[in-house]
Amino acid sequence: MLYKTERFFVNTYHAIASKAFPRMPVPVPNVLNGDKSLDTLAKHLVDKGIKRPVIFTDSFFSTLPSFQLLIDTLEKKNIDYKIFNDIQPDPSYAIVEKGIAACHEHNYDCAIAIGGGSSIDGTKMINGCAKHNLDPRKITHGLMSMLQLRRKGAYFVAIPTTSGTGSEATTVTVVTDEKTNQKNALVSYGVVPDLAVFDSRLTMALPPHITASTGMDALTHAMESFMSTYSTKQTDEMNLKSIKRIFEFLPRAYKNGSEDHEARTEMALASFDAGKAFSKTLLGWAHGISHQLGAFYKVPHGMGCAISLPHVLQFALPKASDRLAIIADTLGLEGSTEKEKAQAVVDAVFELNRTLNIDSKFDMLKQEDVSAIAKNIIKEGNMAYPSHRNFDSYRHLESFLMERRDFAY
Ligand SMILES: [Fe+2]
């Protein structure tokens, strides 16, 4: 199909979806928040009648003192837990199948995911499949997947140890096919956790570069959600609050994260709010670009978002300066016209990257890959990213990327 014809159908789809999508009743997790909220988790589980949880995490995190905080609280209440610490980055079907078996062996009544996005995302799939005896290899394709995992799994607790993915609030889970390396995303309301626990003790030890990239992932969620044509008054409030928090607290968490409990707590809440918002609005082109930088060059997701975000905002500016100007007002940025305020936001994101020692350029791009990368981004993004400004052709996106390969702010 000609690109322009395809765009016509996509625009029509988004015009309809923008009315329906934000009205969908996306479940929202309850929250335990505070300096020592993990200590109250066990009581919460006992009150819920939970006796046999399985804890999902990765092998490294399970050796850390922060993991022991969770174990201590469960043991104090004599809860009969089982640990599954085989979660890996971008969990595969094989890992998900092992996790399902662990649930059945333990006759589980609760799934507790503690870790980064992969631990929480993987547990979403494991929990839904274990509870309803579903084969994960058969349910991660197309609309049928949404129907098959629409029923909730066992009581699900998500304890994020980074502040960025927002996975504790979202409807998305991703599983990787180990044979083809293809990532299969599944969207279902049934996978949203019942409870999100934020305890700043878990994020205090995050190294600065991870704090920076995961924090910029959260900012990209909030900004792309705000810039989505699906945005609503409710999502705007969440996103603006999140954006303001991140501009204030991410530099603090980056510079002094091992001592600044307030910055860590605020970043966790900012990430959570952005996750709730983008479950209703979807995201934008910075995510499409980041996914391909990850697939082609192993650029970590948050870093790909950080690099792409200011360029995508600059690209959107001519069509969405009013939206950017609202962000400028929230951040107290100067400008005598709407356009000046919008430009101030773009400049502020470049500046934030500089503060976090992130180079805002696509210097990993190889000329020979650009055509395939642009095709993949548009294939994913036309339907997934409801944006105010889109690319006119594959060539348009290729030029956009190549022109920014050596860009130095
Ligand atoms: Fe993201």
Please give a structural write-up.
- The protein is an alpha/beta fold and 409 residues long.
- It has 2 domains: 3-22 and 206-403, Up-down Bundle (Dehydroquinate synthase-like, alpha domain); 35-202, Rossmann fold, CATH 3.40.50.
- It contains 15 helices and 8 strands.
- It has helices spanning 3-20, 38-47, 65-76, 93-105, 117-132, 136-139, 142-148, 208-226, 233-256, 261-281, 285-297, 301-331, 338-355, 370-384, 394-403; strands at residues 30-34, 53-56, 82-84, 110-115, 155-160, 172-176, 183-187, 195-199.
- A 6-stranded parallel sheet has the order 1-8-5-4-2-3, with helices on both faces. It has a two-stranded antiparallel ribbon with strand order 6-7.
- α12 (301-331) packs across α13.
- The longest helix is centred in the C-terminal third of the chain and has 31 residues, at 301-331.
- The radius of gyration is 21 Å and the shape is globular.
- The protein starts with a helix and ends in a 6-residue tail after the last helix.
- The model has no long low-confidence stretch (mean pLDDT 92).
- Residues 217, 220-221, 287, 301, 305 line the site of fe (ii) ion.
- The site of fe (ii) ion has 6 residues, from α8 and α12.
- Residues 30-199 form the Alcohol dehydrogenase iron-type/glycerol dehydrogenase GldA domain.
- Belongs to the iron-containing alcohol dehydrogenase family.
